[in-house]
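Structure in, sequence out. Go:
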């Protein structure tokens, strides 16, 4: 199983050791997301940074949607089926998403694929960025609920081809 990790809070007044942990996770800005395997070392990093991030188990459908909508390759181009066929052992983005979720392949092992997803703030906003998810806030471990948060962060905001809505 893989975890989707989203940075919620900014970088003002962050202790140096937590800043280093966030940097190692590649979460340098708010609303950035990474997908990491479920290992003891990553779990320790997530616990250390729990007051600045939220995480949970990502499902295959959300992972595929994340790759389609927000996945980028070097040069800031969107990921394509052709890129997946050329650079991995998989034939489609759905197969790649399934492999990432089941920890068969890691995002940073794919040449040319950026491991960070830049997301929008969630539609409807966060509940509060100062309390844990278990206390009615937005921080920390949220299990399968991470999928609904990611979908709210990827939803179309009514813009066409990058143009502003009139």
């Amino acid at each position: 199983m893989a975890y989707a990790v989203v940075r919620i809070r900014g970088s003002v007044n962050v202790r140096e050791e937590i800043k280093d942990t966030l940097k190692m996770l590649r979460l340098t800005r708010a609303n950035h997301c990474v997908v990491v395997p479920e290992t003891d070392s990553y779990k320790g990093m997530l616990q250390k940074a729990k007051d600045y991030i939220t995480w949970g188990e990502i499902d295959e459908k959300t992972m595929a949607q994340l790759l389609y909508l927000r996945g980028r390759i070097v040069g800031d181009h969107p990921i394509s089926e052709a890129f997946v066929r050329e650079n991995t052992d998989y034939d489609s983005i759905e197969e790649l998403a399934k492999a990432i979720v089941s920890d068969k392949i890691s995002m940073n092992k794919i040449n040319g694929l950026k491991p960070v997803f830049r997301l929008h703030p969630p539609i409807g906003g966060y509940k509060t960025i100062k309390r844990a998810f278990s206390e009615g806030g937005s921080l920390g471990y949220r299990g399968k609920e991470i999928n609904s948060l990611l979908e709210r962060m990827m939803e179309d905001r009514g813009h066409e081809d990058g143009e502003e809505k009139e």
